[in-house]
Amino acid sequence: MSKVWDKYPQVSKELESVKNIIKENIKTSEKYFQDSVIPLVDNGGKMLRAAFLLLSAKFGKYDKKKMHNLAAIIEILHLATLIHDDIIDNSKLRRGCESIQSKYGKEYAVYAGDILFCQCFSMLSQDDYTMDNMRSISKAVKKICMGEIKQNYFRYTRKVDLKKYIRIVSGKTAALFVLSFSIGAKEAECDENTVKLLGRIGYNIGMAFQVVDDLLDYDGETKKLGKSAQSDLKQGYYTLPIILALQEDKSGELSNILDNSNFNEDEVKSIVDLVKKYNGLEKARKIAERYTQRAFNGIEQLQDCESKDILKQIVKKLINRCY
Amino acid sequence: MSKVWDKYPQVSKELESVKNIIKENIKTSEKYFQDSVIPLVDNGGKMLRAAFLLLSAKFGKYDKKKMHNLAAIIEILHLATLIHDDIIDNSKLRRGCESIQSKYGKEYAVYAGDILFCQCFSMLSQDDYTMDNMRSISKAVKKICMGEIKQNYFRYTRKVDLKKYIRIVSGKTAALFVLSFSIGAKEAECDENTVKLLGRIGYNIGMAFQVVDDLLDYDGETKKLGKSAQSDLKQGYYTLPIILALQEDKSGELSNILDNSNFNEDEVKSIVDLVKKYNGLEKARKIAERYTQRAFNGIEQLQDCESKDILKQIVKKLINRCY
């Protein structure tokens, strides 16, 4: 289990059980499908979405088996979107291993993602989850895909401004965090206000998480990230640090380079330097802090319990992470 | 509406309503998503799966609104798989128009397909369909994807024998036909035997349909097909006509060419000629007829009604189609 959870043995133990459910469900499929997907589960990342679902559900009537299943569904959903993202981004690495699209080909990766999507809905239909949650899940996935489509549409153009960036991130990242925070709570019969509050906390954490991710694309290390550094930039995704740096780029030296595409290594280096020079990283970090603060304010309003304390500590870790 | 239904104004009218439901549901999404998908719906093909669902449901308690919705869901599901298939096959044409992957790029097509998958589950959760059907649908889509993965795995290899071919087609094509024949009937509360019988009919029609499709890849015309002729062959998919021809290719002249990949036009022509010379088309046609006969036998066991007559006539048309 990721070391994020080292200090919380209870969460860590429950996530281990979620991971086993994921693996069991993938094992119902054919051998070579299992072989391609299981390594990704084993190197399972931080399992943030599953953890947030479990922690939120604890504000209501916590049914362990049901919640572990639901957390597994959310993680499989996330896995499906990652596999499809890697096709688009041509990513070689995922969670420190060779990505499915790179190892098995893009063709395979399209269907592997599709199978995982179906697996989620198949698992949802096997337990007595509310139709309402089924609706929320399918809507969230639509939002994620729309966010990805928008992001892709704006590749290599400087037309992405702050407003468009926020819309993209609201879809591609925050939607799944909102879902993780709210569907567990809903199944645990939390009252409507608590579900809404948790959803808002999820939104702000999701936004902060993505901004930090975008920052790491500029100053993170490949080894720690488990994926290539500057990969977004090289793919032509102009994220928050660039958008904010451009606001101070009066001479046009940054925008001139960005008007090209398929940057060479020198250009990548220049862009990173200019983004730093024009305070892109610094300003983006402030925005991440603002979202984090909003998340904290939300968490403060939750009833006192162990989950609340864990949420606070984890959010603090996320904003300061380097992986 | 496709001319297949010209003789059946009632079916045609109902399919028109199904088409409107599909369009309305797609219109809930963003403008450019609509613009990319609606043309595919308008040039909507034969809508066979929807029609089979409606015709089967008529053997039970027919609730028009519910069945039209369910038929729309099945067609959207089919659309999603087509969009993803076109990515894999690099197809330029679909239903006589430029394919989404060709017009908007593969990246876009991945997410467009994903959105349509989610749309299905979202629609399913809005009506009071049985969880049992939700399960059947997600299982069927998994089967379809597994079939596609297998097909892709065997590209440009002569390892596909008759048994493997049947397994591939059972997944990639027949699974959705089985679903179309059975879920409408199940929702219409047909008794278990009738649902099973309809499922078997669907399976045999699906198998016959795919074999005829594979035959058309050899002797169909691009204009009539709405997609390129010999496209399967050029992509390295060795379908039934080749598999059967190879059984008579004692001299090895066909297998020698097949051991290459990326055939030039001359090689494509030689393969087509050799497949004909070694009776590949003739024998495949016999197999299609055998599946059709099984479908007829099944249909005969259904209770007498208008749907039964229409099914018989449509199946006869399908086996003799050239598009």
TrEMBL record, chains A, B:
Keywords: Magnesium, Metal-binding, Transferase. The keyword Metal-binding applies. It comes from the Bacteria. Its cofactor is Mg(2+). Gene3D superfamilies: Farnesyl Diphosphate Synthase. The keyword Magnesium applies. Belongs to the FPP/GGPP synthase family. This is Polyprenyl synthetase family protein. It comes from Clostridium aestuarii.
